[in-house]
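=== Structure Prediction Worksheet ===
Name of assembly: unnamed complex
Input type: mixed (protein and possibly other molecules)
Chain count: three
Listed entries:
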Amino acid sequence: MLERFALGAQVAFHPTALLMTLVGVAWGIVGGALPGISGSIAMALLLPLTFGMDPAVALMMLAGVYVGAMYGGSITAILISTPGTPGAAATVVDGYELHRRGQSGKALGVSLVTGTIGGVVGVFILVGMAVPLSKIALAFGPPEYFALGVFGLALISSFVGRDLVKGLVSALLGLILATIGIDPFAGTPRFAFGNVDLLSGVAAPAGMIGLFAVSEILHQIAEGGDWERIRGRYSTQLPSLREIWSLRVATLIGIVFGTIEGLLPGGGGAIASFIAYNEAKRWSKRPEEFGRGSLEGVAAPETANNVVTATALIPLLTFGIPGSNSAAILLTAMMLHGVQPGPALFDRTPHIVYGLFVGLLVANVMMLVLGYLALRPSIAIVNVRRPLLLSGILGLVLVGAYSINNRMFEVWIVLVTGLVGYAMRRYGYNVLAMVLGLVLGFMVEANLRRSLLISLGDPWVFFTRPISAVLLALALATFVSPILRRVREERRAAHAEGVARPAAG
Amino acid sequence: MRRADLVAGVLLLALAGVYLQQSLGIERGFASDRLGPAFFPQLLGATLAVLAGALVVRAVLKRSDPTPLPPARVGLLWAVVGLLVGYAVVMPYVGFLLATPPLLAAVTVALGLRQPLLVVAPALGITLVLYAVFGRLLGVLFPRGPLGGW
Amino acid sequence: MGRNAVRLWLAVALVLGLSLTAAGQARYPTKPIVLVTHSSPGAGGDLFLRNLAKHLEGIVPVPLVVENRPGGASSRAVTYVATSPKDGYVLYGATPTLLQTPIIAKTPHSYLDLQPVANVFFDPMILYVRSASPWRSLRDVVEAAKQRPGQIRFGAATPGSVEHMIAHEVQKVAKIQVQPVTFEGGGDLLVAVLGGHVDLGVGEYAEVASQVQAGQVRVLNSFTERRVPGAAFPTAKELGFPIVREKFRGLLGPKGMDPEAVAYWERAIQQVLRKPEYRQYYESVYLVPAYMDHVQFRLYLDRTNQTLRRYLKEIGVIR
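=== Predicted Assembly ===
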């Protein structure tokens, strides 16, 4: 094992390899930070450049983009409330809240440090346990994916605050949006109204840009103060070491759920960060800070996202199955260079595999350095006068929406969801619940129907299979417990009032 | 918030109705699964109808209205929304480079910035940067309009 | 006429002659050619065009630009190409989606609004099981399905896809009933087969090849006309089930495209398929070269479109 690492290091520390990885990480940070340009597109655009390279160097460069894009995405999630991927949606909640309170440097710093920790730990998990962990992926069939999706949806009850009815309505709006397009089981269109643009459905990134970013801009415009007067007051102060140490539990939680998520190629890629967020809140000493700017609320999902970048390579390397669009591009690059994924890969071409592993570690360190260097300039950009900032963000997100599919349709989606999102914010609905519904809706429905196909119609399949039964029980507990707690608190408050009143009278 | 809840409840009921009505028209085919393409939408539509009903009932029954909404600058909001819609309508015809600077400048002015230089220069600058990064570097195909590309 | 006048006329004639020959030499192609795909960057159709463009360097003397026009299940890309100038500078890299979408939904343009130029590849389709499965041949599957009708879980893609069509035809030809299980992607299906959640799957050979080499998956047969090069498994035809279905990858231009440009591309495709570096690439991703000229490709598309329409009627997706 050590020998192979030495071999990998030899490949990865070659000056050309280091330079290409650096270029990859820098490009990834930029690509990830631009709305509408996901990590996978940033990688695809670099792919032709790698044709002439040594296969190991090519893979390292692409892996650099992959790693860098994850941090790039959290820059926009935190500074302008625009998550580039569904995985970054959970980061918006507390990251953007911290930024609003002026603690931008702390939020970005925590995301950077815990992200790097997640990335590095992820690589060691990948190296040490790839083959045994790949068995977990095989244990997950359609009923298990269904149960996992339900678990994700059950988190809504703890996200929505006091008004459960409005929270559930919000989630339903997201789920309804996700049913638009060609139904994969029947092969027929649903809710497309004869419009060809609707055949492929509503792209989740467009919905997220509208619901998070545009609605936030409209909210600021309608409810803000005197724009001309307000100037930026976003601090570049970084988190202290003590603050980072206080995030250890949240980071650990992120590692656990990120590992599991990465293994499941059909998982959709967003559940881990949401579950990690929710668990971090449950285990936190200060759960009341969540949603109001908690550093732990940034640490948990960001760790999870970065662990996923590494563990998503497990199904890729062992089965040749890409768990995400980015992994699909790595797979293509491997095939182009004649590297066949599969269990034998580790023995057949160790210099490429271990070169990639060491390269991933190097890329994570580079991300830490480049991210640190990019931190102050990116906060400086948002410190301009508010009217300029808002019009600049509008320009950026409209262009981002357009570039998802090179057409106006996504721009319209962003405008409509933005307006809906603003109304939802104003009247006490929950935008995050709607995003969760939009992101998970299709996965839940498809796996429900698929499960009933493989069970030949037996609905008990969800309860007779142990993993799915446990996940569903956890989902129920997750859904009910915040409600019970709220009821109990209200009753106690009412009781206290009842006791207090006669004494006063 | 009571009146808002009442209005929202009624609107959501209408949405649920239209959605359920549309779900009846989905082609099922013979190759589909047991549940079919309409089952999940109908489940969602029915649940939405129930929740919207609850919202209406609650709005009618609840006497007190504890949280009055803060005032919003509705005029300004609709002005910006109007600009955005106008942009989306016009952009395919006049092209990205011609449509974007006026939008950005107009939004800046609407938000209260009046110095000509501070309005015009950033609007042009941001447009050019976006065009260079997305259009040139990332290969996004913007509508060109009469100006053409370069 | 003085001597100078003669010189002048000579000069004029010379200039005219030169410019005429120059005009004659300025033959297609003289400016960059756009290759349009309905895939996003990095997806299958996009990579096909990008690699083709890369290996056509040196064969086609002008730059080849790949443009992504995703959305609308390929209808946007088709409309874009169908309404482009007919001079041969805009081509569409097509897959079977070209035929499927207009049948299922009302689209502004279909393949009939395009001029077939040449087909380039077939993606071979195969039937596979996990290695622990007792089945060694499609005949075993048919046997099992006769004993337990409707209970064999047969993983395939969405109705309308080539995979689902194969599952449908296997049932028709072998007179059996199975339970088709829809998966959105070939990778998801492979995991389900490996995990034993479904009994067998049909998919692209490229998606399962690495697991075949690792001994995790056994290919029962292909659905190709001839055996897949270098493969040990038979075709369904050899086993007595005449089912031949594949995914095509070809080029089309706008209807009425300049015949000279069509002929140019026919030559260029034949040439690039012979190029050793390109051959090395497409063999590594298990694409089978399947050149068709514009006449053959047109007939192939017509035939495939009819079969597809009949099948979609049989499964009730269209009336």
